[in-house]
Amino acid sequence: MCGIVGIVGDITPKLEKVFKDLLHMDVLRGPHSTGVVAVTDRGDVNYHKVLGTPSDLMDTKSFDKLMANKNKVLIGHNRWATMGKISKVNAHPFEHGDIIGVHNGTLKNQKLLPNHLDFEVDSDNVMYSINELGIYETVERLHGAYTLAYWDNSDQTINLVRNADRPMHFCNVKGSNVTVFASENWMLYAAITRNGLTPQNIQEMPVDKLHYVVCDDNGAKLDTTFVVEEVQPYVPPVPKDEPHKKYLNKMVMWGFEKMKDGFAHFGLVEEPSIKGRIYVTDSIKKLMEEVERDNLDIVALSAFRVWQANVPYLSLQSANLEVVYEDDDLAWGLDNKRISKEDYLKVANKGCAWCTETLDWTDREDVLFISDDDCLCLGCQEVAEVKEYIGEMQ
Known about the structure:
Elements: E1 3-9, H1 13-25, E2 33-40, E3 45-51, H2 54-58, H3 61-67, E4 71-79, E5 94-96, E6 99-104, H4 122-133, H5 135-140, E7 147-152, E8 157-162, E9 169-173, E10 178-182, H6 185-193, E11 199-204, E12 209-214, E13 227-230, E14 251-252, E15 257-258, E16 263-267, E17 275-279, H7 282-288, E18 296-301, E19 305-306, E20 319-323, E21 330-332, E22 338-340, H8 341-348, E23 368-369, E24 375-376, H9 384-393
Parallel strand pairs: 18-20
Antiparallel strand pairs: 1-4, 1-10, 2-3, 2-4, 5-6, 6-7, 7-8, 8-12, 9-10, 9-11, 12-13, 14-20, 15-16, 16-17, 17-19, 21-22, 23-24
Helix pairs in contact: 1-6
């Protein structure tokens, strides 16, 4: 979870104060780092980011210099680290070519973006993709949660877009030529009214709609009404037929390797394209200690999952497997025990224990239970502090 705030238009000193107040309020959504993008009336783009809170940012001379300009666009970001370590490099905004912007959310499959191996933080990769592929193709590849706010220097536009997994709200200010936006609607009301101004028409930004303002003139002359265009969201591939089911009672394991996630991974001689994993029960552990034996039978394994990733297998033995196929109404709970959908949702609906992101049944393959009452989303499982905490628990 992160937060995004901003203003576009004729930004007066009082509206600058509104922006600063929004940024302070937004720290509730992310205390790890803070960053600001500013575009002047002349079209010059400046940015500054620091580790820590908005107070840390505003105590710097660089921030004072940035705000001393007559700006027509201000974008602020408060980061709650979910992917990548907490560092100034990983703080938002990220700049690539004509694009500089911020991201609230966590992707489930960064591999869909170009050159994904070059980026520690998915948000950085997103901005790179927008510069390389454009916003429309990039959005089609965003498998996961996002709200994006970015400046495109090629056409002098400020752009915002989100999906249903992350919020964004916006409004106008009575008597002012501006549009103000923030992740949470109460922030808009509080920041604007405490500065003696009146918000107008606070509304939630529709999902899968690109909202942009062309800013090729100074702030006083801008039409700050959003232009809205539809974007096509990511569509999961249609699952292929499941040929592995015909092998449920006569599988041959040609590769068998103990992995850190508590599973043994294997492939099938009869169907090389199929790769799977089985939960390592005590009986499996015993089997793995007896790999010199041949033709070992494994009866009633707890589950079988199709496993898509291409990993090297350690060929140790062959064994005939009798496998009970995974029940679609069960999920993996604490210590990889099978739990009912009802029990899963009781915990998942409370949200991620680290970032509070709401989780649902579609997240069950990615969620990690750390207690009977707490679980973590996929992104937070990669946070260094979380890994350290989990290590201390084990």
